[in-house]
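so i finally got all the pieces together for this one. its three components total, 978 residues if u count the protein bits. some of the lines might not be protein, just check the labels. i wanna see the whole assembly predicted at once instead of chain by chain like last time, that was a mess tbh
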Amino acid sequence: MATAELQAEALLTVREESYLLIVWRRFRRHRVALMGAVILLAFILIAALAPWIAPYDPYAQNLLLKNAGPSPAHWLGTDELGRDVLSRLIYAARISLAVAFVVTLISQTTGALIGAISGYFGGWVDNLIQRVVDFMLTLPLLPLLLTISALLSDVTIPGLTREWSSVVIIILVLSVFGWMGSARLVRGVVLSLREQTFTEAARALGMSDLQIVIRHMIPNAMAPIIVSATLSLGTVIILEAALSFLGFGVQPPVPTWGNMLNNAQADMWTQPFKAIIPGFCIFLTSLSFNFVGDGLRDALDPRLKR
Amino acid sequence: MTLTQMQVQTTLDLSTDQDLVVVRDLKKYFPVRRGLLQRITAWVKAVDGASFTIRRGETLGLVGESGCGKTTVGRTILRLIEPTAGEVYFEGRNIFTLSKAELKTLRRDMQIIFQDPYSSLDPRMPVGASIAEGLAVHGIGTPKERFEMVVDLLRKVGLEDYHARRYPHEFSGGQRQRIVIARALALRPKFIVCDEPISALDVSIQAQIINLLKELQEEFKLTYLFIAHNLSVIEHVSDRVAVMYLGKIVELTSREELYRNPLHPYTQALLSAVPIPDPTLKRERILLKGDVPSPLNPPSGCRFHPRCPVATRYCAREEPPFVNIGTREREHWVACWRIM
Amino acid sequence: MQRDGRDILLDVRDLRTYFFTEDGVVKAVDGVSFHVRRGEILGLVGESGCGKSVTSLSIMRLITPPGRILGGQVLFDGIDLLKLPEPEMVRLRGSRISMIFQQPVSCLNPVFKVGDQIAEVFQVHEGVSRVEGWRRAVELLRMVGIPDPERRAHSYPHELSGGMAQRVMIAMALALGPELLIADEPTTALDVTIQAQILDLMRELQRRMHTAIILITHDMGIVAEMCDRVAVMYAGQIIEEADVQTIFTNPQHPYTRGLLGSIPVMGVVRPRLDTIPGTVPNLINLPPGCRFAPRCQARLEHQARLGNRCLEENPPLIHTGPGHQVRCWLYP
């Protein structure tokens, strides 16, 4: 019991360093997280530079060269419509990462907002929101997502083709079911910040509630939100892949790692690498996001540095 | 006389030059909520009828054990928490009836210093920005002028100019408390509530902060409500002292009188329990029985009677009034049947 | 000063406990030597971070990583505890040496009744039955002044007030009649009237059971009321040691003097308190000379005689009188 206190007591160090520098120093020490960050950076670069990197147009069909194996012209061969697998893999990184980032942005922001409202106002508002969160969390996620995606699979959004509508729909569906974690988290943070004396000091100085939220609560809540968002990116990648794999997510010909995995099923035994490679991409990105999230959690933890 | 006229009358009566803060029968009950529907099942009577005045330029010490309500008194008279009942006049104005805008203006005159110097500064904000915050909120000065004021304040509390750009984690507890004091001083208040300002600090640092508070009081003509549990510290800093027990003030008089001639049995026991750093001193100690009862369910009559060494049966039945048994000039307020 | 006398119960020699942290080596205890006689109360005084708690945990061998005991001896009744195999040390803790802490409630297991927790001490160490253990637990609760002990034994820790919980902790600590009790700030978390009760109880039990006590505190008032001898610690070292009268009437180390001058004393009103400038040093980057030198005013007053010695060389602990030791270049 006493050791933690004693160590804190022993660490009465005073050093001049900016906050970001401390975070970076701590993050760097986390080898696995650093590796994750490098891998993610590579994936993001590939996705961003897809038009320049990809050897072929991912949608261009070559019906004369269907289901081809690897060759100098097509490193990873072609698919059942003769499209270049490597190019599709590169473009799929774009879609999968874009879906993950957009879903995370929407769900984490709404979640944070709802959580902040819940924590700050308390009382029956808080009670109501928390019961809704409880309810949402008890729902079996995958079957529900499948059902909803199936129901919405024929819906097309005006101005978009059916395939691109499916991208928008999957983003919306995943967002609707992804906000609860961050709502819980931010509520907790807000509740603990309300207890901190510096918010009371701010009131004594004549600040309004809104000013306190903007100047004190949000900056202090940023660290946990960033961590939760990073972890959520990994989860969304997996969920999107699962839905697309089962055929209820992003529809072909728009490539994602999930529906490529689905496509590769037919040749599973003759050309297993066509399934393994997209699968490996899913595995690697989601794992990297998780490692980076863990690293950030340790690096941003204010308790480590009073 | 109509009711409004009467109120005006009292207000005028109270705005004498001598009294800066007048507290009348202040009550603060906290609800205890239980169950899914968060129904109120009980009330914690943290402050249950406290009346006192704080004179311009003095330090009123408010002393008592944990849970006696002294911190709640400090917060309520600044209206950081809303009262259940009672009135608090600051320079003759009832602060409980002020509008939001009026209250914001009044905040410039009354400030607070907290116990825990670690949680009273925003960890993500350079201390200069923290100190300037009040100035910014009230739109005082340009950013450049505010920075100059911050530097000036830092020097006043014994820190250096370059500290303004640093973050709270780079400071020790004592230094942080100096920063908190600078922040409270920024708006040039008349009145500061010091809520256990030194009890979280190391012994050798406590003296520095006490001396600093005393110097600043002289320089800026400040009035303090000094809340503490340490009777030696209270004696050192106060002009007058109020002793609280379970939400009530049981004794209030000048420092000299209280420490030389304590009348309430609780005050007597409290004073005799203080360990004195003099091994040659042999004292007769009044040991109180049992623990402080819960403010959820305070004892009947005089709240001290279950632990009181001189209580009679009457004490359990009727609550003693808080009366001045001294003179108008040398007041000595006490709430005890044995004294009357 | 006789050091080989048979009445010496605990003899700590040159104890060193460091913490190996990410930021560097924290020399929490750096060459501490002192002794405790049977039946006496030794006060270990100092501010937070001076190493007084780490010293007591080192005696009990309860230091966990990143902390490590690097050297020295802890002779308890002639046996070096630092060399004792762990199973024997386990047997010793709670039976011959026991400890109480600042936060009594957090030291009790929240899911067991206090009666069971005390009974367990007897069951584990003496192999008595559960019923017999319970009976003796109730007896102990009565001894430490808990009203209605039969009923109270059925309470859970959260149902106890701070003062009650500390009484329970004392009961547990004294259950097996230890020869040494280490009390680490036992009343700091308590109110002053409850503190008076607990100190009174400790004094009475100490007199009755003849237990030696190491009382760790930062409150000089408690030291004056409770202790026979006092050791003052600063930055991981003992800087002065003397009997309680001498510490208060003739303190020699500038830090001890400063500490005594900086506390307000009830009944003695002064316009200003003396202060010790600056803050406690960082235990990672300690000054090369005397650890108090950067804050020491006496050093400046005696600059002519001492030169820069204080800043360059750490003074040894020397005898300046019977039982009086000081670590300062001002002496002899």
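The two ends of chain B are 35 Å apart (CA to CA).
Chain B has a mean pLDDT of 89.
anyway lmk what u think
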